[in-house]
Design a protein that fits this description.
This protein is an alpha+beta fold and 65 residues long. The chain has two helices and four strands. The longest helix is centred in the last third of the chain and has 10 residues, at 39-48. The chain is globular, with a radius of gyration of 14 Å. The protein starts with 5 loop residues before the first strand and ends with a helix. It comes from Pseudomonas serboccidentalis. This is DUF2188 domain-containing protein.
């Protein structure tokens, strides 16, 4: 049985990760934004995005009214 390998980085508020040497993914906590073949491409994409900051549940409830 093999153990899964997770490579995870954080750039500009986004998670940049790869599982078992698969494609590199740029994600937020609840959404996958893009997949790339190399770490450098994924990091460049995350760096080009506006800064991401997760909103709290309280802030979210006030904006949804």
């Amino acid at each position: 049985m093999s153990v899964p390998v997770l490579n995870k980085m954080h750039m500009n508020g986004y998670d940049v990760l790869s599982v078992n040497n698969g494609p590199w993914r740029v994600c937020t906590q609840g959404d996958r934004l893009a997949s790339f073949g190399s770490r450098e491409e994924a990091l460049a994409y995350a760096a080009s995005l506006p800064g991401y900051k997760q909103r709290s549940a309280r802030t979210r409830s006030h904006t949804e009214r």
